[in-house]
Write a structure and sequence with these properties.
six-stranded parallel beta sheet; 10 helices; globular; binds adenosine monophosphate
Length: 285
């Protein structure tokens, strides 16, 4: 696996491969890798000729009061894991390589970024959309592999790919969980043992919401209430949101209608980590 630090270096290597008509799969990450990230890499390796992974802790997507400076990092371990998972190239630029002096362009996506995490993180998705647009231009993949863990991010990237005519397809990959149901996240390392136990409310609230829908609940407000009741049991964790939205548009819902695909989504702020989780569900009669 080759490690490349600048867009130009990556371009030079990939230009040769693309000229030979290789399919390129791409897995963007912020590092501190776990099985969730590696499941995306393995899928890309299965479905493409060349897999590029990136590690870049993107300053643009962190708010002023967020955890950019203490975001966990473990580059050597990450590189070894990526190599073992079969990645061919690791693109790991420094901030200056992507945002040199004079940089002043931002990509913003509209309505999809307003609700859910966008409400408490108003600048986050513009940071994501800007860096992912740049990475897609630099890598030029046929497919980009993204986790359902960040479902809103997936929808935003899918949208920008369509709107900016980028010739890549966004592939949604399932959430990888710990044995007890907690969605894997680089930020789980910030939880104390007590918070780690309390964090199970995120996935439990989703199960409670899904159970209410299967039992016949059709009012979105009633389902939100069920989920919020569970989130409130977090103790140290402060519930940020418990939402049910149209899985296609992320629009808030009032009444659930049969045949609709809905997204149940939860977020809880612990003292040192804000955690999110979600699941999709088809409403049946
Ligand atoms: P991050 O390093 O947090 O920016 O995540 C990089 C990619 O890995 C994103 O597409 C995430 O959605 C995905 N990802 C993170 N956690 C998981 C997980 N538990 N299961 C599957 N994919 C994940």
């Amino acid at each position: 696996m080759r490690i490349l630090r600048s867009p130009q270096a990556l371009h030079n290597v990939l230009a040769v491969r693309v000229r030979r008509n290789k399919r390129v799969g791409f897995v963007p990450t912020m590092g501190y890798l776990h099985e969730g990230h590696l499941s995306l890499v393995r899928r890309s390796v299965r479905e493409n000729d060349v897999t590029v992974a990136s590690i870049f802790v993107n300053p643009l997507q962190f708010g002023p009061a967020e955890d950019l400076s203490r975001y966990p990092r473990s580059f050597r371990r990450d590189a070894a894991l990526l190599k073992r998972a079969g990645a061919d190239l690791l693109f790991a630029p420094g901030a200056k390589a992507l945002y040199p002096d004079g940089f002043q362009t931002t990509v913003t996506v509209g309505e999809l970024t307003k609700g859910l995490c966008g409400r408490t993180r108003p600048t986050h998705f513009a940071g994501v959309a800007t860096v992912v647009s740049k990475l897609l231009n630099i890598v030029g993949p046929c497919r980009v592999y993204l986790g359902q863990k960040d479902y809103q991010q997936f929808k935003v990237i899918e949208r920008l790919i369509a709107d900016l005519d980028i010739p890549a397809r966004a592939v949604l990959c399932p959430i990888v969980r710990e044995k007890d149901g907690l969605a894997m996240s680089s930020r789980n390392v910030f939880l104390s043992p007590t918070e780690r136990r309390e964090a199970l409310v995120l996935s439990r609230a989703l199960s409670e919401g899904a159970r209410a829908i299967r039992a016949g609940a059709r009012s979105a407000r009633a389902v939100r209430k069920v989920m919020l009741e569970t989130l409130k049991k977090a103790g140290t964790g402060r519930p940020d949101y418990a939402e049910i939205v149209d899985a296609r548009t992320l629009r808030p819902m009032v009444k659930l209608q049969s045949g609709m695909e809905v997204l149940l989504a939860t977020a809880v702020c612990f003292p040192k980590a804000r955690l999110i989780d979600n699941r999709t569900l088809k409403v049946t009669t």
